[in-house]
Amino acid sequence: MEEKKLDLNSIIGFVLISGILMWMLYSNSPTPEVSETKAKDEQVENQTETIESNNNNEVASPEVVNDSIKDEQAIAKLGVFAYSSLLPSAKEEFTTIENDLLSLKIANKGGYIVEATVKGIEQFERDSKKEVQIIKDNNADFNLVLNTKDNRVLNSKDLYFQPILTKDGKNQVLTMRLKASETQFLEYRYVLKPKEYMLDFGIKTQGLTEVVNTSKPLELEWQLKTYRNEKSISYENRYTDIHYEYEDGKDSSLSVAADDDDTAKEVTYIAFHQHFFTSILLTDTPLKTVQFKSENLVIDEKINTIFTKKYFAKAPLDIKNGELNYSMNWYYGPAKYDILKDYEKNLDEILPLGWGIFGWINRYIFIPVFGFISGFMPYGLAIILFTILVRLVMSPITYKSYLSQAKMKVLRPEINELNTKYKDNAMKKQQETMKLYSKAGVNPMAGCLPAVMQIPVFYALFNFFPSMFDLRQKSFLWADDLSSYDNIYPLPFRIPMYGDHVSLFPILASIAIFFYMKMTTGDQQMSAPTQEGMPDMGKIMKIMIYISPLMMLIFFNNYASGLSLYYFISNLITIGIMLVIKNYIVNDEKIHAKIQENKTKEKKESKFQKKMREMMEQAEAQKAQNKK
Predict the structure, then answer these.
(1) Which of 47, 78, 484, 553 has the most CB atoms in a 10 Å sphere around its CB?
(2) What is the DSSP string of 165-205?
(3) How far is C-alpha 489 from the geometric centre of its chain's CA atoms?
(4) Which residues are 538's β-sheet partners?
(5) What is the pLDDT, as a whole number, of residue 74?
(6) Do residues 202 and 317 make contact, with C-beta atoms less than 8 angstroms apart?
(7) What percent of the chain is modeled with pLDDT above 90?
(8) What does the alpha-carbon distance between residue 238 and residue 275 come to, in Å, rounded to a whole number?
(9) In 3-state terms, the chain is what percent helix, strand and coil (to 5)?
(10) Is 563 exposed, middle or buried (0-12, 13-18, 19+ CB in 10 A)?
(11) Mean pLDDT value of segment 504-514
């Protein structure tokens, strides 16, 4: 009985001891994370042992051998910058920063912007569902040429940068570092602010004095192939160019019509302009020398070309105190006057508003007035009202011109008498004609001056409409885009100089100018006496009645429909003003009576008239002397 009890106690004790041991083993077993770490440590130890065994002429795994070879190749090719290619960030990966207006994608390789999308603005036409992308599919690159102390020439666009994305308040900050070590690197810093097309951009180096040959400047290279974004490639390409500011506020541009190149000093911004969009690099520290090159890629307008031009800019960056430090800006967005003007960096000079007085008229009169009008009505109606205002302002000039023609028409019979009387003596005929003008109080140049005064307005408007971003993809009547041609009938073939479509607004403008010239040519013929030795202006004007409308029809067929609309309405209004002046304001009989009254009055000669009379008399005397 005691033995049985002992056996039972032994069994119970064994069970209890086993349970305690199992509980202790379970309590002291590692967690999954610890197990994983231990496994990694063992893996590292195994790799170390494998490398050591490889050093002892033992066989290593293929993976280790391949990695070792790649490392050696990277070092042989890149030197100390091989460090960047061995980091985890050395991959074909991208970082996106964006706001409500702009989306930018920056690549690890090269550290530059490889995609720039302008949000909410569509390509080609409205409802195309394709947002304008200024940069995409490798059409651009940004590069620094690095001359190392071990005589290597490296391109930053081929090397891998390490991205660090942070926030500074509402600003997104992306730092891209091309590392030679943890403390030696080249850095690009992008700062994108809310609701801005412009972002801050910085280039600096740290600790590269022992790596880069600082006796040579780092070459900055920027190139871009501009995508076609508009319906008419020929019209878009006409306003696509490189524009830049240099030497304290001067600005210039390369040719829009052909391949071109140039060099400028002290450059503060470079704009790769694409008609209604632009890419701009601005710098606080002027670039000492910049080489520009532009290549036209639209060889044949009949071919559906993807690109319009290829741009290239190259500039050395100065190294100061052994380091590089430049504060810059990027702009990717619309070439819109109000937006560019607000930055107060003379960026509005990019727009082709015209030089001198033409640009002044656009900037300080036409743009503010049209902006005000278009703020409360559709753009088509705004163009019509704008045209009415311009013509009303110019109506006094129109009146002066017509009045001068009417006076000359009244004098035409007397001028014809002088032509007959002195047909064999041109000098005497000229003298008597000038006397008649003086007595009648008529200035033969008065009809020309009003026309000359309208030229600045005409040319300013010719530059105004192609520069108005606000007209882009705005429709009116049958025109779906007032910034491009209106296509009412596509042609199955292409007519040289005319195009492959029929636009209605140029046809209407041509008809209006035909009737305007038909109405005024008769008066001009009556008012302009034919001078001996000079061509008959009457015959020339008869020909121009047909040539001018035909030229407008051909020339404006591929231009902005908004411009054709303006000239159509402008000619209609001018015809109306001329009819009112002719029928209700100017009376030929009253003009004739006034001229006859002026003849009876003694009129003092002006200094100019006196000088002209004396010169003619001297010439007449010299001619008589020669005959003797």
Answers:
(1) 484
(2) EEEETTEEEEEEEEESSSS-EEEEEEEE-TT-SEEEEEEEE
(3) 30
(4) none
(5) 61
(6) no
(7) 36
(8) 8
(9) 45, 25, 25
(10) buried
(11) 91
Q: In terms of residues, how long is the chain?
A: 628
Q: What is the pLDDT of residues 329-368, one digit of tens each?
A: 999 999 999 999 999 999 999 999 988 889 899 999 999 9
Q: List all residues 6 or more positions away from 414 whose beta carbon is below 8 Å from its beta carbon.
A: 436
Half-sphere exposure of 537 (CA within 13 A, CB side): 13
Range of lowest pLDDT (68-82, 153-167, 265-279, 523-537): 523-537
For tokens 């305007």, the residue is 516
DSSP string over 532-556? TTS--HHHHHHHHHHHHHHHHHHHG
pLDDT tens digits for range 423-461: 666 666 777 777 666 666 666 665 566 667 778 888 898
**Residue 419, burial from CB neighbour count under 10 angstroms (0-12, 13-18, 19+):** middle
Instruction: Report the candidate in 585, 580, 459, 608 with the shortest Cα–Cα distance to residue 519.
Output: 580
- State the Cα angle at 147 between 144 and 148, rounded to 5°: 125
Q: Are 238 and 273 in contact (CB under 8 A)?
A: no
Beta carbons of 76 and 154 less than 8 angstroms apart: no
For 626, other C-beta atoms within 10 Å of its C-beta total 7
Instruction: State how far the Cα of 406 lies from the Cα of 400, in Å rounded to an integer.
Output: 10
Q: Hey, how many other C-beta atoms are within 10 angstroms of the C-beta on 528?
A: 20
DSSP 8-class letter at 323:
B
Please name which of 311, 318, 269 lies closest in space to residue 292, comparing C-alpha atoms: 311
Closest CA to 457 of 529, 398, 374: 398
Phi, psi (5° rounding) for residue 315?
A: -150, 140
- Is 567:556 a contact under the CB 8 Å cutoff? yes
Confidence of residue 261 (pLDDT cuts 50, 70, 90): very high
Backbone angles phi, psi at 533, to 5 degrees: 85, -5
User: Has residue 492 got a pLDDT over 50?
Assistant: yes
Selection from 582, 562, 388 nearest residue 473 by Cα: 562
Residue type, 82: A
**φ and ψ at residue 96, rounded to 5 degrees:** -110, 130
Whether the pLDDT of residue 70 is over 70: the answer is: no
Non-local CB neighbours of 484 within 8 Å, separated by 6+ positions: 230, 231, 232, 235, 560, 561
pLDDT, tens digit (0-9, with 9 covering 90-100), for 297-325: 987 766 667 899 999 999 999 888 888 89
Across the chain, mean pLDDT equals 79
**3-state secondary structure at position 523:** helix
Angle at 377 between CA 373 and CA 383, to 5 degrees: 60
**Strand partners for 191:** 173, 200
Q: What type of residue is 585?
A: I
Strands annotated E in 75-139: 94-98, 102-107, 113-122, 131-135
The DSSP bridge pattern shows strands 218-227 and 198-206 to be unpaired
504-527 helix and 561-580 helix, angle to the nearest 10 degrees: 30
> What tokens does 238 get?
């006409």
Two tokens at 433? 């004609």
